[in-house]
Amino acid sequence: MATRANNKIRPIRRANVHKDASEFEPCWELLRDALTSIHTKNAGSLSFEQLYRASYKIVLRKKGDLLYDRVKDFEELWFSNHIMPRIAELVSNNLVSQALLKPPGTSAHERREMSQKFLRGIRDAWEDHNMSMNMIADILMYLDRTYTAESKKPSIFAATIGLFRNHILNNSLGSAATELNQDFIIFDILSAVSLDLINMERDGDIIDRNLLRNITSMLEDLYETDEEIAKQKLYLTVFEPQYIRNSKEFYNKECGKLLQESDASTWLRHTQRRLNEEQERCDTTLSILTTDKIANVVESELISAKLDDFLAMEGSGLRAMIDNNRLEDLSILYQLISRVDKSKTSLKTTLQSRVMELGLEIEQTLRNTDFSTPSAVGGLEGEEAAEGGDKSKVQTLSAAAQQTAAAIRWVDDVLQLKDKFDNLWKVCFNEDLVLQSAMTKSFSDFINRFNRSSEYVSLFIDDNLKRGIKGKTEAEVDVVLDKAIILLRHLQDRDMFERYYQKHLAKRLLHGKSEVHTEKDMVYRMKAEMGNHFTAKFEGMFKDMVVSSELTDKYRDHIRSLGDIGLSKTAELNINVLTTNYWPWDVMGRNSQEEGAKADCIYPPAIKRLQESFFKFYLKDRSGRVLTWVSSAGTADIKCVFPKIPGKETGSLSRERRYELNVSTYGMIVLMLFNDLAEGESLSFEEIQAKTNIPVSDLMRTMASISIAPKARVLVKDPPTKSIKATDTFSYNAHFMSKTIKIKAPTISSLSKVEGDEERKQTEKKNDQTRAHVIDAAIVRIMKQRKQLSHTQLTSEVITQLANRFKPEISLIKKRIEDLLVREYMERVEGEVSAYRYLA
Amino acid sequence: MSYTGSGEQQDESRNELMQSLHQLFEKGSYSDLIVKCGDDVYKVHKAILCSRSVYFQKACDNMAFQEAQTGVIDFEVEEPVHPVAVKLTMHYLYHLDYPHQPMPQDGDAVTGVTEPETVANTTSHDGDAVHLTRIRCNAEVGRSCNKKKCQKHKRGRGLPPSSNLTTHARVFAIAEYLVIPGLKVLAVKKFREEVQKSWNSDDFFEAMEVVYTSTGEDVREMRDAIVDAIHSHQELLDSVRVKHSLRNNPPLTFDVLMRLRQTAILKETGLYDEWR
């Protein structure tokens, strides 16, 4: 302990309970003098302990009521003698008429000075009063804790602070009221000048924010009654409603003006600035209690009220913002709309309709664009155009190639559109989920409205995977594949896509047009996106390719071990064994009515021997399998020798020329016929057809490839027209020469292109057949599990199950159900309207 | 607040804090406030006093008051402020407890004031460190204390050397005056414990007078403790001192009477045992 007191303790003075009356007056006198000192700011010598003790003693003697009343009386007297006159002086006729009648002709500056002078007077009086009341409440704390609390009276502080409300704010001091014949209370003037000041600030003037803040915090400290109910702060009950009304009016006018004089962009920025200003005003000048309410006012008056008018503005409205990528405008717009509408309806609808419109525009542009020159396409080689056969100029593209180019253009444009909106979404819309799903829906809608989207997407991938070999970096390919997947997500008829992709993939694989790891990567992505069943066939195709390559190696070893030199010298066999179900029907030669004829295609004897040898080898370990030769899908490398032309001493014709010619299997069969011909002899188209039994259409294409395309014209056609006719004759072209050793005869079948209308109809027919089976399977699966279902339930379950693959037509489902009823997979439930039961 | 760590760790940390508070109190270091009462001077800390007592808070906060300006609070020795009670209150604010200390009787010149010494006991009880307070006999200057012969030591540690009820009554009164609710509760608790043994003593009669004069009628806790004691030991009503008090102190008489009536009602309705 700090200091040792001496050990003697004086006896404590014992209070006498019975001396109550005589003790009160001295204590009160002490307190009364203190109150006066406090009011006159002479409190420096007051001892809290003494004053507290005095009030404690009074309470102990049970004179709390007397003290309470005395203090109240004292304060009221003091208030009317000292405070009210001070305020009365401030309330001049000029001020009152200025504040309430708002006569024209006074400058803002004058008004501001007068208002601020009045508010300063109020504030100073309030601060004196408030400080004194606080101090008095401190001294009388024990009275408040005991007597006041028990008698349920307002605390001393509440009772005295309320004087300011009763005698000043709710009063009209001075003579202005009678002189101006104007009924008012001081609160009216206080509010009017405060609001006037705020409006001045909104118009760009500088005002005394601190002063206003003092005034509003005074209003926050005062209540309607001495009970001081939290919701009844004068700020909330009187001032704030007036402020909100005033602001509504102000912003209503401002919005009208903006609509007439400005554009949407200005409106956006202006509104944003106003919102920030109001927030700041609440922080610095008024009260944070009002922050949300005033924001609501600005939101409803400046944003909601005329939102659609601003958005519809020509040249600056929402459409212009989207079309011109006005990112900043859109960001602000998004923020503003988010404030007033959680579902962002106006923004959402316009975005959706814009996506739709722009999407359909792509289709429209496609129809109006001329793809007949390669420059419009880029990347497609002229040679491919040439074999269309019906075009006179080499540089123009065949109709099919044009279609292909259009497909790629379509996908590119759709992706660009998607990029554009994705960018808006990321940069401006804060990755809003509502907007995302709305835009996604619109994308899906227009993509699926276009009936060739499935085919086009597959073609796009085809094009990129083939071009991937031609110098794109892996990262670039990666980006493209990602985009393709995005498009895939939007496709509804995924089974159609699957069909096309299978077809295109088959061609790429068989002709080695793409890189296996990129292909696998793509399929892996699809698998992740759409599930195993979707990619099962594709993976089967990959497997076939791998197995085939091993098989080829083994067969080669086998031949070597046999030592059949003759066989291995004549030809080398590269075999692809394709599992029927994995590969598309047209590659497998299952498409045409001429199937029978195809099987009977006549091979040259050397090739026949090779085939038989392979059959023997293959079936040794795999007895029972059926191998069919698909001659339409293969190619052959032929080493050919053109002897020197007699009489030519210079140039390449003077030498013997050796070339490696790559042709289709049919091409090989045809060319080998000419090996047996004597010089000068020729074969007619019909003779060739008869000798080979190649289907006419295939033969026509084959002949075009080796007798028309200048690069590989090893046969001479008579007459030398650009198309093949059944009456044409062909002979060996002894004068053939080429700059390269390896020559690839262009083959039409190796090109993935858009289907013709006829082809497409067939594809759809095939697809519909497949869909019927898939629906059958789904129905049976569902019924097996559920045993009994109503028609509607069953239909909706089928749609749900198949949603990932395609959107089945209701009529088709109905037809399948009827079919299954006939086939007795299920039966109608008797007595119930359209309900079915599964039959095991 | 949540504590992490084991119980032992908590005890240790708690001891550390209590030890440092004890040091602050003993040495008065960093003191920014002086409390005086009679001849006693305490160098204390606003942070500790003002945060626990509204009285100190008000006295120190408003710079218009002399106390806030000078940093000195001078208590006049007059009801309800008693120097010993002030001393124990200061002790309480730093130790969460106050030591046993009999109140000097009015008119006695007391020598050899006992000095409390707190010993942090490491045995824990309900997770809290318990502070045992033992009283060291302080010999008068120049006279040595033979501990073995000292009466107080012979009675054994922890046992009250003499009745302490008036002290508790005074501590209670000042706790009410200074608005320290925890101290009020503690004083009543101590009082109720001790009155079990010391109900028939001058100390009790003195405490009774103090309770009924130092606090207002509506401050019930200590008055209830007195009335309960009288009610539990109704032979007290036979004692001259109590009779005298009842005759002269209407509030006390009223309380006792009401209490007897309450018991009677409870007994009639058969709820008495349950109530007890």
From TrEMBL, chain A:
Residues 452-707 form the Cullin family profile domain. SMART domains: CULLIN, Cullin_Nedd8. GO terms for molecular function: ubiquitin protein ligase binding. It comes from the Eukaryota. Keywords: Isopeptide bond, Ubl conjugation. GO terms for cellular component: cullin-RING ubiquitin ligase complex. Gene3D superfamilies: Cullin Repeats (1.20.1310.10), Cullin, Chain C, Domain 2 (3.30.230.130), Winged helix-like DNA-binding domain superfamily/Winged helix DNA-binding domain (1.10.10.10). One of its GO terms (biological process) is ubiquitin-dependent protein catabolic process. InterPro entries: Cullin (IPR045093), Cullin-like_AB (IPR059120), Cullin_CS (IPR016157), Cullin_homology (IPR016158), Cullin_homology_sf (IPR036317), Cullin_N (IPR001373), Cullin_neddylation_domain (IPR019559), Cullin_repeat-like_dom_sf (IPR016159). Belongs to the cullin family. This is Ubiquitin-protein. It comes from Bombardia bombarda.
Automatic annotation (TrEMBL), chain B:
Signal peptide: none annotated. PROSITE patterns: BTB. CDD domains: BTB_POZ_ZBTB_KLHL-like (cd18186). InterPro entries: BTB/POZ_dom, SKP1/BTB/POZ_sf. Residues 31-94 form the BTB domain. Gene3D superfamilies: Potassium Channel Kv1.1, Chain A. This is BTB domain-containing protein. It comes from Bombardia bombarda. The lineage of its organism: Eukaryota, Fungi, Dikarya, Ascomycota, Pezizomycotina.
